[in-house]
Amino acid sequence: MSKETRSKKPNKQQTDEQKQITDNTQSKKEKRAEKKKQNKEEKKYLRRVVPVWLKILIVVVLSLFALMIGLIIGFSTLGDGRPLDVLRWDTWQHIIDFVRTE
Predict the structure, then answer these.
(1) Which of 90, 88, 96 is nearest to 71 (CA)?
(2) Closest CA to 75 of 66, 65, 67, 84
(3) Cβ contact 85:91 at 8 Å
(4) At 49, is the secondary structure helix, strand, or coil?
(5) From start to end residue, where is composition biased (Basic and acidic residues) (predicted)?
(6) Is this model's pTM higher than 0.70 or not?
(7) Which one of 5, 44, 84, 91 has the lowest number of neighbouring Cβ atoms within 10 Å?
(8) Burial grade of 72 (CB within 10 A; 0-12, 13-18, 19 or more)
(9) If the chain, 102 residues long, is cut into consecutive pieces of 10 residues, what is the mean pLDDT of each piece?
(10) Closest C-alpha to 87, from 97, 65, 66, 72
(11) What are the phi and psi torsion angles at 18 (to 5°)?
């Protein structure tokens, strides 16, 4: 490449195309901004059907229920005891004493 080709200024057609491209991107940005603003205005906030504190309470209650069912099944099948004996305090006191004395 010679110095002449490097030093050539872009012709008018090229600069017009560049301006048009920047205008198109500008208009696209403006359109996006308008659309975003309209979406914010149209957006309605929904009230939660189930509050967060109730969800947490439900999870805790279901977890305790699952724990009790697991204890009953484990005590009756593995421990050869009566299923509802696991829920009595005497059974747990016996287990605690057994662990501490050894």
Answers:
(1) 88
(2) 84
(3) yes
(4) coil
(5) 14-33
(6) no
(7) 44
(8) middle
(9) 52 65 70 78 75 95 95 86 87 90 72
(10) 72
(11) -65, -40
Which residue, among 96, 97, 74, has the nearest Cα to 85 in the 3D structure?
A: 74
Query: Do 87 and 72 contact (CB within 8 A), yes or no?
Result: yes
Whose tokens are 């996006």? That residue is: 32
Structure token digits, residue 36? 């975003």
**Tokens 């209650």, residue?**
61
Residue carrying structure tokens 């279901």? 62
Instruction: Please report where in the chains the tokens 């009953």 appear, as a residue.
Output: 72
pLDDT at 61 (0 to 100): 98
